[in-house]
Amino acid sequence: MGPLRNRRGVIAIFTVLLFLALLTIIAVVVDFSRMQFMRNQMQTAADAAALAGAVQLLRTPKTDYLAQSKNYAAANTLLGSTIVVNDTDVVLGNWNGPSRVFTPGASPTTADAVQVTVRHSSSYLMANVLGWAPKKIATRSVAWAGPSVSKTNCMKPWAMWYGLLRRAINTYRGIPINPTTDTASLNQDDLQALREMSDAQRTFNLFLGATTKKDNTLNPGNFYAVDLPPVQYADGTDGDPLTGGGAYRNALAGKDSVDGSPICYDVGVGDVLQTEPGQMAGPTRQGVQDGICTQGGGSGQCLGPDGTNPLIKSAFWSQTTNKGEGKFTAAVAVIGSFKLINWSGSGNDVGITGVFQPILDNGPVGTGNTTLQKVVLVK
Predict the structure, then answer these.
(1) Cα-Cα-Cα-Cα dihedral of 212, 214, 218, 224, to 10°?
(2) Fewer CB atoms < 10 Å away: N or C end of the chain?
(3) SS3 for 97-146, per residue?
(4) Could you tell me which of 78, 23, 20 has the C-alpha nearest to residue 49?
(5) For 287-334, what is each residue's pLDDT tens digit?
(6) What global pTM score does this model have?
């Protein structure tokens, strides 16, 4: 019986050791799963906060980026508790797309990205009995308000010379300009300059152009009525534009020509637009009053249904010389965006005053840069 009792003692010790080993494994698995679950919740909050802050960089006032980031972080929970982000953990900076590097230190005016870090000190549930110290968890996200879309919807049937936008940016950057031939595409430095410029530096004044001038030249100080959809798309396929004053008026108002329901037209870089002949003063006045400047207008401030200046998406063409007789076609060089401040609609004198600016859009990201930008998570 002696040897048997000795074996029973060994088995008892082995059982205790095995139990402790299993308990440790269970503790590690449970706590690891809990930590991973917490990381996922924190990452969701960091993503939401960074996106909210980056979106605000394309809105007014840009300085609200901090409040928006913190509010969206707080809208998420961590194990049932509200997530709180410190002011110092919301950092402005600039994102370099090719190198995928975030450089902190920018101001709300010059920044195009927001980095948010969510931190939490968590104690273990089961591993505490093993004497494990609390673990600090941190997640980080960077959102970039930089990529440009190559195609967008709800375009207005106004086309203007791309050189107007280029001249404003080049003047601010101190780059020599040629008012008739400067068609260099936008780059990230141009978009950064556009963010930094004051409203006065980004303001333009244009009048509706007649397309029947004897010299057949385009006036850089004019905007032109165009038909939508495009007459030809960037991939070479033909479009089916709606022509005439009524179709143009309804496109301005954003209404279908048949039943008056809301409608939007897609236009992209490289598409070809066809103009309408003549000034189209009457249809312009009617379309603007019906769907854009529902308050103010006439010869004063333009306000939309919400009481603010409407944001307009328009085509900027690259052609600036010969236009041919009557209607002419213009290739879309850039999808532009501006805030419509004033419009004049008296008699045949139809004019607009706008402020160039980058605005948020959900279109597909393209290889070129436009003033319509998309906010994306990049890191």
Answers:
(1) -10
(2) N
(3) CCCCEEEECCCCCCCCEEEEEEEEEECCCCHHHHCCCCEEEEEEEEEECC
(4) 78
(5) 998 899 887 655 578 998 888 999 999 999 875 445 555 678 888 999
(6) 0.77
